[in-house]
Design goal:
Elements: H1 5-19, H2 22-43, H3 55-85, H4 89-95, H5 100-128, H6 137-160, H7 164-181, H8 196-201, H9 203-211, H10 218-243
């Protein structure tokens, strides 16, 4: 039942070394803080929302969702890519007695911790700046599922990329568009109808919908179902790729 723990511990030991560097914490916060200052504090007094809340309060949950996506995904994708293609440590992991399912769980759990850590930094800032930002059970559930979902997607990317540059390519085509067009910085209701089908296919869109809810209404339940569906699919595909690995 705990076969995944050695994989998780290996990643956490590497993560701890990064945490000891003060620059890592600042780099994890830099992009969200820039967005917060530019969009939140800069436009917060001028932007009106149909949701009946101020812009800064609207923006902070979106930044948490975006930050958790970026960090959960990027760490796992880069770590697996490098261990497969450059350090060759993943091949040793595959040849060990560990089951592919245990490797998948260990990698995803590690990605979740990194995503949650980055989110915690933004949440801390959210309580410092003048806003009505608050936490609730729906927010925390959406955050956990989001970290799990994108850590699982990171495993897929880490397993299928053929070079380290490919990881950046996938990020540019999939992760970056989601960060800007999935309701992080503005309400999805303001998107032209012709683009909405594409927007609603993006998993981060449904995280942004759910993470701003204080209770489960019909829209929230639909978004919860969608991100759970994506999470199961990503996890299943990632586990299959590890099981069928033959490089």
């Amino acid at each position: 039942m705990t076969d995944w723990y050695p994989v998780f511990l290996k990643e956490m030991l590497q993560f701890r070394r990064k945490l000891l560097r003060l620059g890592y914490i600042f780099s994890a916060m830099m992009a969200p803080i820039i967005y917060l200052i530019t969009f939140g504090l800069g436009l917060g007094k001028t932007v009106s929302l149909t949701e009946g809340t101020d812009y800064l309060t609207f923006l902070l949950p979106g930044l948490v969702a975006m930050s958790s996506m970026n960090n959960s995904y990027a760490w796992v994708a880069s770590s697996l890519n490098l261990s497969r293609l450059y350090f060759k440590t993943f091949q040793i992991l595959i040849q060990s007695p560990l089951k592919p399912f245990s490797i998948m769980i260990g990698e995803v759990m590690a990605g979740m911790v990194k995503g949650l850590f980055a989110s915690f930094l933004i949440i801390t800032v959210g309580f410092i700046v003048p806003s009505n930002f608050s936490l609730n059970l729906v927010f925390l559930l959406a955050l956990l599922i989001n970290c799990f979902m994108f850590a699982s997607l990171g495993v897929i990317t880490g397993m299928i990329t053929k070079s380290h540059e490919d990881t950046a390519t996938y990020s540019n085509f999939f992760i970056m568009p989601m960060a800007f067009f999935s309701g992080t910085f503005f309400s999805i209701d303001r998107i032209p109808m012709i683009f909405k089908p594409l927007i609603y296919v993006m998993p981060l869109t449904h995280t942004n919908i759910l993470i701003r809810k204080s209770y489960f209404d019909l829209e929230g339940l639909i978004s919860l179902f969608v991100i759970l569906f994506y999470s199961i699919c990503f996890f299943h595909v990632g586990a299959r790729l590890i099981k069928n690995y033959n490089e």
